[in-house]
Design brief:
This protein has four helices and no strands. The protein is mainly alpha-helical and 142 residues long. The chain has two domains: 10-40, no CATH class; 44-141, no CATH class. It is rod-shaped. The termini are far apart.
């Protein structure tokens, strides 16, 4: 018997019974679904290396997001001092940060997103408090 490869179709299970009935008349086989046919990584060393690199990339993306998310509103608040600017910047930056964490942090649960957003807004509120204290001191000396 000769096998010819005609191309791979994206079936969710291989229909063995049709093939056996066609080429082995009289044979009986129970059909089992084998799941989606796709690439299965059998090399454990490459799999562990790929998992390590993916985790490293994920941590790097989160570190860059956190750094930029903290520095940008602090620069805005330092360059344009004022109560309204500080409060609006903090509010908008917190909402943007929460949305970005939801979009980028695909493996984060709801409590992780809440905790990171709360910590982020706490850091910005501390910056607002210290900058307001500096503003009131400069106004008092004038």
């Amino acid at each position: 018997m000769e096998f010819k490869v005609k191309g791979r179709k994206n079936y969710s299970s291989w229909d063995a019974t049709t093939w056996i009935k066609k080429y082995q008349p009289g044979a009986t086989v129970q059909s089992y679904g084998i799941g989606p046919l796709g690439f299965r990584e059998l090399d454990k060393k490459r799999l562990s290396e790929r998992i390590y690199v993916d985790a490293l990339k994920s941590r790097l993306h989160m570190a860059l997001l956190g750094g930029v998310a903290l520095i940008t509103p602090m620069l805005i608040m330092a360059l344009y001092p004022g109560l309204v600017v500080n409060l609006v910047t903090t509010s908008v930056a917190t909402v943007i940060f929460a949305v970005l964490v939801v979009v980028i942090g695909t493996d984060a649960s709801g409590k992780d997103i809440l905790a990171s957003t709360a910590a982020y807004s706490a850091v910005l509120v501390v910056f607002v408090g210290t900058s307001l204290q500096t503003l009131s001191e400069t106004n008092a000396t004038k």
